[in-house]
Amino acid sequence: MNKPKAIISWSGGKESSYCLYKVLTERILDVKYLLTTINDKYNRISMHGVREQLLNEQADSIGIPLLKVRIKEGTNEEYENQMETVLLKVKSEGITNVIFGDIFLEDLRVYRENKLAMIGMKGIFPLWKMDTTILINDFIGRQFKTVICCTNDGYLGKEWVGRELDKSLIDQLPVFVDPCGENGEYHTFCYDAPFFKKKIDFTIGEKVYKALEIKTADVSNPLINVTTKGFWFCDLLPVI
């Protein structure tokens, strides 16, 4: 029997990598594309700040082609319009499922499902409501290799970017930081995984701070108010 066709929302980090591994292992869906949002001005993965060249190397190693949503202005309207255009294209190819690595952010899931429903598509959430401590320990135990490429300074500082995501690092995280960084505390770049044909080679480059002031309330502990003044990024340099 033919498996339903799907694409996966691909950030290049830990959740999307673990999610893809789960889908490929269970063999329930036929994943046709990796879908990634790119900052067109800097040619980097949105939010994560990882160079597009490293993203391309990931896709080559995985063996699944990329679909890129290129964002120029950075507005929500632009993002939604660009995303709808790409999704309608894949729908014309008979693909109606979009896989996401979200774990417990209810509002984000509802937003995704509502937008997909408007164009007759469906969201799939293989990691939904998984215990994030169990998830990250299984991720590390299965020999996924990742490095922290971005931190929200309301949670973690400059000293965390560029570090390998391993058991030692997880044990050192502050108690108000989710082990998987599900509240946006940190983002990662996955450079090796059980389904990669070869690991991605890179070196650690400059650490850069980008200012941005927002306020958020931690969903797991309403007594903690987090003030984000900006984000730390570690430039990961491809090995040529």
Write a compact overview of the structure shown.
This protein is of the alpha/beta class and about 240 residues long.
Structural notes for this entry:
The protein has helices at 14-26, 52-62, 76-91, 106-117, 132-141, 167-172; strands at residues 5-9, 30-39, 44-45, 66-71, 97-99, 122-124, 145-152, 186-192, 202-217, 225-238. The protein is globular, with a radius of gyration of 17 Å. The strands form two sheets. Strands 1, 2, 3, 4, 5 and 6 form a six-stranded mixed β-sheet that branches. The chain has a four-stranded antiparallel β-sheet with strand order 8-7-10-9, with helices on one face. 28% of the residues lie in helices and 31% in strands. It folds into two domains: 5-124, Rossmann fold (3-Layer(aba) Sandwich); 135-238, no CATH class. The longest helix has 16 residues, at 76-91. It is an alpha/beta fold and 240 residues long. A hairpin with a 4-residue loop joins β2 (30-39) and β3 (44-45). The protein contains six helices and ten strands, in the order βαββαβαβαβαβαβββ.
Beta-strand content estimate: 25-35%
Shape: globular
CATH architecture of the largest domain: 3-Layer(aba) Sandwich
Low-confidence stretches: 215-223
Task: State the share of residues found in helices, binned by percent.
Answer: 25-40%
Q: Note the total helix count.
A: 6
Radius of gyration: 17 Å
| Count of separate structural domains | 2
